[in-house]
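Students often ask why inverse folding is considered easier than folding. One informal answer: many sequences map to the same fold, so there is more than one right answer. In these notes we will look at a single instance of the problem. The structure comes first.
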């Protein structure tokens, strides 16, 4: 049963009921510190995670996402002491991801005070963990992070064929993907002057990556997000690796494809440079929530200013706490 079965409407895709668009700061944590980079690399220090979380709590953030971005790559558990400290000092609900491989790992995170757990690498390696978490903790507490990158179709097809040969789930066939608009046989206009080339090598696919964006999987993002929802994910956090940290705007094409394909809320992530980008993600790509890091960490905008911008655009959002 998905969100569409539970609600008469709500969010961008359920117009009969109005759900507020959530503004969600994100804390990428590495070695106990909040960090920020561009396209998942070039990390710079952005402060103590507990202090940063307290700041966003005071600003009236709807939620917080805390990701231990190297836990899966380093094969270790999430930083539970940070989770406990955030839970002790903040009132906003928060989601924790990174290094969660089993329901016992998820139980430890929720017991430490998180409202939701976010599965990324583990959901690709062992999709059953999504169903197990949903059964044990509920769909609302089970989030799947999807980190896609635009990948040349030929390279993607090779990895997809390898998965298929290994007996792993690959989703719909190429012809089905093409008919559904998920196999993107076009190139970005801004990359070329004049007429677009007909070279088939210009085709690209939004390919899911894991281990903090280090490993391509041979899975296309739209089919994978659909499957995650079918398995029990109550929410998808969708992070464009191409846009991450650039502050050039959310990937509206990617976000729209996924938002319109799944029956659960989608959080747009990666590339936010202003509150207007948030408005675009909701209006043009049907996002249910918007996530940002750099603009908040660098105090370019406050959470309240983002919420007010959504309201000024005629979208449902929480009133800012104090001056916007």
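Output (designed amino acids):
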């Amino acid at each position: 049963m998905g969100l569409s079965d539970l609600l008469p409407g709500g969010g961008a895709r359920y117009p009969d009921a109005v759900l507020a668009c959530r503004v969600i700061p994100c804390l990428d944590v590495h070695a106990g510190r909040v960090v920020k980079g561009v396209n998942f690399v070039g990390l710079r220090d952005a402060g103590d995670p507990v202090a940063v979380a307290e700041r966003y709590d005071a600003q009236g953030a709807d939620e917080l996402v805390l990701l231990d971005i190297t836990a899966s790559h380093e094969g270790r558990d999430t930083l539970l002491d940070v989770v406990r400290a955030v839970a002790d000092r903040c009132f906003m609900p928060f989601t924790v991801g990174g290094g969660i491989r089993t329901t016992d790992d998820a139980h430890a995170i929720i017991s430490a005070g998180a409202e939701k757990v976010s599965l990324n690498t583990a959901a690709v390696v062992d999709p059953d963990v999504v169903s197990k978490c949903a059964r044990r903790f509920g769909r609302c507490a089970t989030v799947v992070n999807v980190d896609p990158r635009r990948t040349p179709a030929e390279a993607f097809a090779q990895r997809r064929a390898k998965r298929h040969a290994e007996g792993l789930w690959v989703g719909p066939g190429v012809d089905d993907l093409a008919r559904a608009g998920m196999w993107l046989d076009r190139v970005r206009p801004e990359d070329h002057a004049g007429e677009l080339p007909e070279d088939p090598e210009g085709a690209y696919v939004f390919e899911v990556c894991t281990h903090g964006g280090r490993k391509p999987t041979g899975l296309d993002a739209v089919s994978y997000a659909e499957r995650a929802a079918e398995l029990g994910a109550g929410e998808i956090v969708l992070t464009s690796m191409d846009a991450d940290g650039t502050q050039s705007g959310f990937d509206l094409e990617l976000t729209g494809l996924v938002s319109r394909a799944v029956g659960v809320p989608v959080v747009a992530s990666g590339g936010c440079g202003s509150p207007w980008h948030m408005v675009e993600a909701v209006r043009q790509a049907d996002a249910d929530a918007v996530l940002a890091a750099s603009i908040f960490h660098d105090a370019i905008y406050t959470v309240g200013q983002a919420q007010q911008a959504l309201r000024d655009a005629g979208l449902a959002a929480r009133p800012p706490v104090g001056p916007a």
